[in-house]
Specification:
The structure is a homodimer.
Chain A: H1 2-11, E1 18-21, H2 37-49, E2 54-59, H3 72-80, E3 86-90, H4 94-101, E4 107-113, H5 116-123, H6 127-144, E5 149-155, H7 168-180, E6 185-189, H8 197-211, E7 216-219, H9 227-236, E8 241-244, H10 264-273, H11 282-295, H12 305-308
Parallel strand pairs in A: 1-2, 1-8, 2-3, 3-4, 4-5, 5-6, 6-7, 7-8
Chain lengths: 318, 318
């Protein structure tokens, strides 16, 4: 399969489900308290102890504007020190990408809006320019750090807070453009939580056909309570990489008080009930949650499993 | 189709999804404050205004032990006064059934445990005796009130708090026994919230085969966060009647602090995103929720949609 396929297969094995914990990145976008570096490292260590291996831990952004990610380099090092740990961080412009390729980060995440309106309003650039950045990042990676994964996340893939409905053909075309530009993996994000399971199932099946033997990510939010149902639909339709955040941290900028990312703990439980082994221990995850909660006393941690625990008197696997 | 089929088809039309609001019954099993009759009638009226037609409103039980259902007869009358309103109430023994058939209640709900252990521990009778009560209720209905629906709910259908795993064959055998005993409709209940979507999908498909042109109910709880995913799997596999409770009221006796029934508002949204018309207006439902919350200030109302609202700038149907 060549160097590119080797890299992908090593980080995202095609024969199992991979869960990416994005709490330390997406989860910290809208919280009241930013945990300090020591608290973030404790969170990491506990999750690693529970079996989590894929961590999205920050953005290469100006620390003056995004103080929660000022320690992104230290977080990259912290993940690198964990056995089997894989770190991902966002690079939203060329300067960020130049910084990222110089670090030990395992994966550089670029964001492309699925709609022109959101791309212009949020990123002040066209979608074509955003795909151009994916190409630049892949070129830098090839030149400087060939082991790194380049991930292109397609924001607003299931509906846009500005322009409303999004045609799946647009998402698929952009996914194809990103792969052609050198991305190893693309992801469809329900950034504002508009999706229902039928829609997620249909786009997942189409992405599965488009991506062939390459993996793709579903980044789902629980803004309207559909997060776990959407994840189940994605898994039923070929998705094998899903994002979630510890306690569902993350919120939604367009719906104050609404829930954020899919709750990671509940996502692990879902996968296990569906017969997908995650390698993640829910008791260990509960300990990580306690650590994280202790460092963010003003923030609400969501999730049903944290209150109930899994069934104690039966094997809860499919 | 005969009188029996006519009765079923009128109350549970086979060409659409029917949502049963069980908040006024199952929802009030574990709450801190019991709303008074006036508050319950206001709740009913607002939900009816929003398009809800199927209400489970109480149990025919001794009012001294179950004060929250002391007004079950008045609630039956309140639903009967609503255009198109259909009331359901539990009868857990012969005395309750004798009372129920004398009222205007539209549906008498009997409960049969899926496991012998739970049946003995919770109802102090065997499953065979519980099926016998279904037969007695159907006979009373035939003799006294032939328009009424007899509903047999199978508790612990997806796992039992006492005996653990439950074989689907047991549930199907009991469902068949209940139909043979004269039930119009059977329901599989995830009483303690053990189920995942694969399991729910498989049992729904099997019930669909068993029931033929007769409807069946999925009564799902959200104890472990799988409620909406389980509902989606049920709908994907032939279920057309689902239960939920306003704000997810109900809790779980075996998991203090855990969430209860599937949140009715989120369930309506799920159905609509999947292309099933419910006839229920979410704005009206939000008003009903406010009324109910006002009458139960100490209780937690769950649900994501109540915080976010549906997408405002796109048609959110599948």
């Amino acid at each position: 399969m060549g160097a590119t396929g080797d890299r992908r297969e090593r980080i995202y094995p095609s024969d199992r489900v991979t869960l990416r914990e994005v709490g330390l990145r997406d989860g910290l976008q809208l919280v009241k308290t930013f945990p300090d570096s020591a608290a973030k490292r404790a969170w990491l260590h506990h999750e690693h102890g529970a079996g989590v291996r894929h961590f999205e831990i920050g953005s290469f952004l100006p620390p003056t504007r995004f103080p929660q990610f000022a320690d992104v380099r230290q977080m990259v090092e912290a993940v690198a020190a964990l056995e089997g740990g894989h770190s991902a961080a966002l690079a939203l412009n060329e300067r960020g990408a130049e910084e990222a390729v110089q670090t030990a980060v395992g994966e550089i995440v670029c964001v492309v809006s699925a709609t022109e309106e959101h791309s212009q309003a949020n990123m002040r650039r066209s979608r074509a320019e955003a795909v151009g950045l994916v190409r630049r990042v892949a070129e830098m990676r090839d030149a400087v750090a060939p082991g790194k994964i380049v991930n292109a996340g397609l924001a607003m893939s299931f509906g846009c807070s500005i322009s409303g409905a999004v045609a799946p053909e647009e998402v698929l075309r952009l996914a194809e453009d990103c792969l052609a530009a050198g991305a190893d993996i693309v992801g469809a994000a329900d950034t504002v939580g508009y999706a229902g399971p039928r829609q997620v199932g249909q786009l997942s099946a189409a992405l599965d056909r488009l991506c062939g033997n390459r993996p793709f990510i579903l980044h789902l939010h629980d803004t309207r309570g559909m997060g776990i149902a959407n994840a189940a639909a994605a898994l039923d339709n070929g998705a094998r990489v899903l994002d979630g955040s510890l306690g569902g941290l993350g919120g939604c900028p367009f719906a104050p008080g609404a829930t954020g990312n899919v709750v990671f703990e509940d996502l692990v439980y879902l996968c296990e009930t569906m017969g997908f082994r995650t390698g993640i221990d829910l008791t260990g995850l509960a300990a990580a949650r306690q650590v994280a909660e202790g460092s963010m006393p003003e923030d609400v941690f969501y999730g049903a499993l944290a209150k109930s625990g899994p069934p104690q008197n039966m094997e809860w696997r499919a």
